[in-house]
Design brief:
Blueprint lengths: L1 E3 L14 H7 L3 E4 L4 E3 H17 L7 E5 L4 H13 L2 E4 L6 H11 L3 E5 L3 H5 L11 E4 L7 H4 L18 E9 L2 E9 H10 L11 E4 L6 H12 L3 E4 L5 H11 L3 E4 L1 H9 L13 E4 L6 H11 L3 E7 L3 E5 L10 E3 L5 E6 L12 E7 L5 E2 L3 H7 E2 L2 E10 L5 E6 L4 E3 L2 E3 L1 H9 L4 E11 L3 E10 L10 H12 L6 E4 L13 H8 L15
Parallel strand pairs: 2-11, 4-5, 4-6, 6-7, 10-11, 10-12, 12-13, 13-14, 26-27
Antiparallel strand pairs: 1-17, 2-3, 8-9, 9-19, 14-15, 16-22, 17-18, 18-21, 20-21, 21-22, 23-24, 25-26
Helix pairs in contact: 2-3, 7-8, 9-10, 10-11, 13-14
Length: 526
């Protein structure tokens, strides 16, 4: 059955991103954090100046600019400047370690890297910095929102960015697939404009709102969500971290009307006894996404703040596809009806639509869909077909058009809204000389959605003790950072499929066996 979301209004051109706020409240705060703020006029002027300085570095329209930026006003200032200069912004996950940074630099062909000085150690260990023909630049945020002042001032005026076609690339976000390292999801100026036009509108956001972004701006939800709020003239509040003390400070001091958080951070916030009882009173909506929202979190937020959770379903490749808007009675466990400007279909294995109540593969058609994966036509062809995008997820719809998440066809692990490729983690474990085979799966976790569990078969050793689980985890963490397993299980034999590959479905079944406990390598089976 086809599922149609409400029609989306015509989007503003990207060069008019700040126009609503400038017209109505030029000297009022546009971007604000606990220790800094920029008015609409300041944000506009600084973005223009930063774009000028970027072009003075020798960056040309279409060049990729990689960045490692924390949750600060400067992250938004940087992206707006890239759009004005015609550059392709390439934000990297702020938790990336050196090998992942190297991979992103190689795939994107970035000419320049901007990074915060607190990431200096990882950048120093990168091997592909020589590929950056315009080099790299580190900055600090002693005065946040002043990034333009930290770059050299150009001597003479340089030509502005040329007019760019709607299909010109504007943004590359790296997201993990099920079969390998992260791929570069590429949004054109047209699809990014559609994303900014619809994201905040799904929650009836307007110039009267104060939108608190409590998730990472290194992910599309945080960065595009905030820009979407600015596009509608709303004040955007940036949480420097997801720590409950930081969030409570912003809730009390700045009185936001909308809050966007990951489920794990929301759990910590509602369970923190130090958060005042009236901290939530300004909110009219709490948006949580990234994975299934546990029933316990619904109950606890309702009891603490009298608010329902506005669940949604979104992906980097196409933005929000389904959402529970404010003012409409949400159905707990449902990700909501089709979102603004979205056409959805649930299909069976033969590509035929399935009836209400029957799970099917979710396909989407929307103006916000990516153009493809940067430099990877094979992966692009696997998910794009005749204007439709295959999400790789299985959902079902009820007779009222509300969608319910069933499972992932892709074997991604979703931990706190980050996509983790099992193969990438398996490769890190296999680098250890004591590991003969490795398989990695996600295990359901109430707070984080899923945690990473590694299954290993050890090599026969002539002498010495096998490494401990903690040692294997630490070994993997040096290679893949936050993606490393949080649990290790040692097997005598690894389940394999008919092709001789690790059978992750069998490992998932094993993970569901209550009798299978994570254990130290070398410890006896029960």
């Amino acid at each position: 059955m086809p599922l149609l979301g409400p029609p989306a209004p015509s989007p503003h051109p990207l060069d008019q991103l700040l126009d609503l706020g400038l017209a109505s409240a030029a000297d009022q705060p546009a971007l604000i954090s606990a220790d800094a703020q920029l008015s609409w006029r300041e944000l506009d002027g600084r973005a223009t100046e930063l774009a000028r300085r970027y072009r003075a570095l020798g960056l040309l329209s279409g060049d990729r600019v990689a960045s490692l930026l924390p949750n600060r006003l400067d992250a938004f200032l940087h992206l707006i400047a890239c759009l004005r200069a015609g550059l392709v912004a390439t934000p990297l996950n702020y938790r990336y370690r050196a090998p992942e940074i190297d991979h992103a630099l190689t795939v994107s062909g970035a000419r320049w890297l901007l990074f915060h000085r607190e990431r200096q150690e990882d950048v120093d260990h990168c091997e592909r910095l020589g590929d950056l023909d315009l080099g790299l630049f580190s900055y600090d945020d002693a005065v946040d929102g002043r990034l333009d002042q930290q770059l050299p001032s150009p001597g003479a005026a340089e030509p502005g960015a040329t007019t760019l076609a709607p299909q010109a690339p504007a943004l590359i976000f790296f997201t993990s697939g099920s079969t390998g390292p992260p791929k570069g999801v590429t949004h054109s100026r047209a699809s990014l404009s559609a994303l900014l036009n619809t994201y905040a509108r799904n929650f009836v956001c307007s110039a009267a709102d104060r939108f608190l972004i409590g998730s990472s701006v290194a992910h599309i939800a945080g960065l595009v969500g905030g820009l979407s709020g600015l596009n509608l003239g709303s004040q955007v509040i940036v949480a420097r971290s997801t720590d409950s003390a930081e969030l409570a400070l912003l809730l009390e001091r700045l009185r936001p009307t909308l809050l966007k958080l990951l489920p794990s951070a929301l759990f910590a916030l509602v369970r923190d006894p130090a958060v005042p009882a009236d901290a939530f009173t300004s909110l009219r909506g709490c948006i949580a996404s990234g994975d299934h929202i546990p029933h316990e979190l619904h109950e606890e937020l309702q009891a603490r703040a009298g608010l329902p959770i506005l669940e949604l379903y979104a992906m980097t490749e196409a933005g929000i596809l389904a959402a529970n808007p404010p003012g409409r009675e949400p159905r707990r466990g449902s990700v909501g009806p089709a979102a603004l400007g979205v056409e959805l279909e649930l299909r069976d294995d033969d590509g035929r639509p399935v009836p209400a109540g029957t799970p099917g593969d979710l396909w989407v058609r929307t103006a916000a869909s990516m153009g493809g994966y940067w430099g990877n036509p094979e992966a692009t062809a696997e998910v794009l077909s005749e204007g439709w995008l295959a999400t790789g997820d299985e959902l079902r719809a009820d007779t009222d058009g509300f969608l319910w998440f069933v499972g992932r066809r892709k074997q991604l692990i979703i931990h706190d809204s980050s996509n983790i490729s099992p193969q990438e983690v398996e490769d890190a474990l296999l680098d250890h000389p004591a590991v003969a085979q490795a398989g990695v799966v996600g295990v359901h976790d109430l707070v984080h959605g899923e945690i990473v569990r590694g299954y290993v078969v050890m090599r026969t050793q002539a002498s010495g003790s096998p490494p401990s689980a903690a040692a294997l985890i630490a070994f993997a963490r040096k290679r893949v950072g936050y993606k490393a397993p949080e649990q290790i299980v040692v097997l005598e034999t690894m389940p394999l499929n008919a092709s001789g590959k690790v059978d992750r479905l069998a490992l998932k079944a094993l993970a569901g066996n209550a009798g299978e406990e994570p254990r130290q390598p070398g410890s006896p089976r029960r």
